[in-house]
Design a protein that fits this description.
Layout (H helix, E strand, L loop, with lengths): L3 E6 L4 H14 L3 E7 H9 L6 E7 L1 H10 L9 E7 L9 E6 L2 H7 L5 H19 L2
Helix pairs in contact: 1-5, 4-5
Length: 136
């Protein structure tokens, strides 16, 4: 099982990528609850420079509600993190990688069989969002 779902965006900037990711997630019923600018945080807290790195906390409330009803501790794995980060192999800074946690991990980490169909649904929706992001 892959730990994440990903795609690469070329010739783009962070603002454009964030909008594309947010729109694709919204189309699949996810909202962005949190945004962490890791690059700015590392600069502020450690005075360290790093490449573009943003974490969006995405949540589909219907799926989250069902998962929490099966096992409240699943909240430790929510929201679904979606990362937008610079491809460090590209020195132009115009290639960004978008990665999302594979929700199938919820079932495998907990061993809770009742989470399997819920995780599969979340995974399918995130895969659709990633496919939309990857589309030209």
């Amino acid at each position: 099982m892959e730990p994440g779902l990903s795609t690469t965006l070329t010739d783009t900037d962070l603002a454009t990528a964030k909008q594309k990711v947010t729109d694709a997630l919204d189309e699949q019923g996810f909202g962005v609850l949190t945004e962490i600018d890791v690059q700015a945080t590392m600069k502020k807290k450690l005075d360290e420079d790093m490449e573009t790195f943003t974490i969006l906390g995405a949540c589909n409330p219907h799926i989250a509600h069902r998962a929490l009803g099966v096992r409240p501790q699943i909240g430790m794995l929510l929201p679904c993190n979606v990362v937008i980060r610079a491809d460090t192999a590209d020195d132009t800074g115009r290639t960004l990688i978008v990665e999302a946690m594979n929700p199938d991990l919820m079932g495998s980490v907990t061993g809770e069989q009742a989470l399997t169909p819920i995780a599969a649904e979340a995974g399918e929706l995130l895969r659709r969002a990633i496919a939309t992001i990857a589309a030209p």
